[in-house]
Specification:
By secondary structure, this protein is α/β, with parallel strands linked by helices. The protein contains 14 helices and 20 strands. The chain has helices at about 15-30, 65-75, 80-85, 120-145, 155-160, 170-180, 185-190, 210-215, 225-240, 280-290, 295-305, 390-410, 420-425, 470-495, and strands spanning about 10-15, 35, 50, 55, 85-90, 95, 100-105, 110-115, 220, 245, 250-255, 260-265, 270, 275-280, 310-320, 330-335, 355, 370-380, 415-420, 460. Helix 4 (about 120-145) packs across helix 5 (about 155-160), helix 4 (about 120-145) packs across helix 8 and helix 6 packs antiparallel against helix 7. About 55% of the residues are buried.
């Protein structure tokens, strides 16, 4: 049946940060925009859910590189600080080591160690961080100021970063060992990058940007939780006239003459559109939304080469009383650097190896008075597809994780529990195969999905193109895809 609505419009698929940014940019340029979201609300992986008075995050747990986020909002014409007030995380990370010592990471002057060899370790830690910041701050600023704002182009990245390539050789593990001779300090620094799902030996040295972000700008939490960021974009998009369709899943993208012609929703409705911005995973666009014989070579090649990110089980607890005696936001209990690969297996080799965040140490109002929130992402490994996962395995992993928490926190009293496993991330959060980032962190630019996949009128954004550190790259990705739409429209108008 032919499309009945011939009105030219733009359709945005997905109401996460990238989708909201793309829709807002297009609407402000005068286009009629329909945003279709399979879930019941906006925000995607940068949102919150309230359970029994506890405000839990749905993915992202803090803001890194706030300067990049401010820049992205400014390009959208939004004053970030006015719309999203934030608090700095004063005590970002503490790592508990197997010899009983504790390493506190903040900046080059405030980081310190406690326990065995505390004075010597503190000196080595601070000297190494100061040297790392001095040598690699130009790399960080180049990434933030010149590479990420222009999109995932390998040529752009190489053009700006080639003077710094020698500093970024090897893996994160080798970089840490070169600069920090103490094994305890090495373990603590490696633990900051557990979120990637990859052991330090397998992470390219460029991923040290995570540590540089802490040193250069610190970590922050929006008041009210991470959902405050997507709420701000949602308000702006509504005011700009974007039409939102929630609880409606796109079943397929329709083409006509090799160009985008519209989308078909799960209830059979067709929406005609000559411009489609898909902010869901590029894997899903290629494998689920396009006819197999219509997938462009460029997109098929990216799908084959792009590494899918890791999976995890979110274990979120609302607890009575304060969370442990620590004041840190991120608390890690980790082995030596060379054994941290074990922390990415299901289950971890030992239950006392843990990583969790306590957002109520920064924002007590996220929980009822006298309560705390503990959030962690237990690793999932050994499955080829989310469908291979079972509820029984979820139960085993959660019990294993709770055992480790109780070892470290004997008085743990849980009042609310929320668990999301790979199947939940796939079906509830609409993440492709339950993978947390789409394309894996650390993937080089040539392995990312392009904004223009090779079909006229179809653009990709979100996890598809920018598996970045923090939320800013997602906003930028949607913004850049929308700018691609507008650029192509202007070019067509001239011809």
């Amino acid at each position: 049946m032919a499309l009945t609505d011939t009105d030219s419009r733009s359709v945005v698929i997905g109401a996460g940060l990238a989708g909201l940014a793309a829709a807002l940019q297009l609407a402000r340029a005068g286009q009629r925009v329909v945003l279709v979201e399979a879930g019941s609300t906006h925000g995607g992986c940068c949102s919150t859910t309230c359970v029994d008075g506890f405000t839990f995050n749905n993915g992202a747990v803090y803001v890194a590189v706030p300067s990049l986020l401010r820049r992205a909002f400014a390009e959208l014409g939004v004053d970030f600080d006015a719309e999203v007030p934030m608090s700095a995380i004063e005590c970002p990370l503490e790592s508990h080591l197997e010899d009983g010592s504790v390493v506190h990471l903040s900046d080059a002057t405030g980081s310190h160690a406690e326990g065995p060899r505390a004075v010597e370790r503190t000196r080595l830690l601070r000297e190494g961080l100061a040297e790392l910041e001095r040598d690699c701050a130009p790399v960080y600023r180049t990434l933030v100021d010149q590479v990420l704002p222009q999109g995932p182009s390998p040529w752009n990245a190489l053009r700006h970063l080639w003077p710094h390539l020698a500093k970024m050789r090897g893996s994160v593990a080798s970089l840490i060992r070169r600069r920090f001779p103490d094994s305890g300090v090495q373990a603590a620094l490696g633990s900051l990058l557990l979120y990637t799902g990859l052991p330090p030996e397998d992470l390219p040295a460029s991923q040290v940007i995570g540590l540089l972000a802490l040193l250069e700008e610190g970590f922050h939490l929006p008041h009210g939780g991470m959902g405050a960021i997507s709420d701000a974009l949602f308000r702006q998009a509504q005011a700009a006239g974007v039409e939102f369709r929630f609880d409606q899943r796109v079943e397929r993208i329709e083409l006509a003459g090799g160009a985008a012609a519209g989308v078909v929703l799960d209830h059979g409705e067709r929406i005609a559109a000559s411009r489609i911005v898909a902010t869901i995973s590029g894997f899903a666009v290629a494998k689920c939304l396009l006819p197999p014989d219509a997938v462009p070579r460029r997109l098929a090649r990216a799908m084959r080469k792009a590494p899918l990110s890791h999976r995890a089980i979110a274990v979120q607890l609302g607890c009575r009383g304060p969370a442990t005696g620590s004041s840190a936001f991120i608390v890690n209990h980790v082995p030596a650097l060379e054994r941290q690969a074990l922390m990415h297996r299901t289950p971890t080799a030992r239950s006392e190896w843990l990583s969790f965040t306590v957002p109520t140490r920064v924002l007590p109002g996220l929980a009822p008075e006298g309560r705390s929130i503990v959030e962690s992402f237990a690793p999932v490994s050994g499955i080829a597809s989310a469908s291979d996962w079972t509820p029984e395995r979820t139960t085993d992993v959660v019990e294993h994780h709770l055992e480790g928490l109780r070892q470290r926190w004997p008085g743990l009293s849980v009042e609310a529990t929320r668990v999301i496993d790979p199947v939940g991330f796939q079906d509830q959060r609409h993440l492709y195969e339950g993978a947390l980032y789409g394309v894996a962190p650390g993937a080089p630019p040539q392995q990312l999905f392009p904004h223009r996949p090779g079909i006229d009128g179809l653009y990709l954004a979100g996890q598809t193109t920018f598996p970045g550190y923090g939320v800013a790259p997602s906003v930028l990705s949607g913004l850049q895809a929308a700018q691609g739409v507008l650029h192509d429209e202007r070019r067509r108008a001239k011809t």
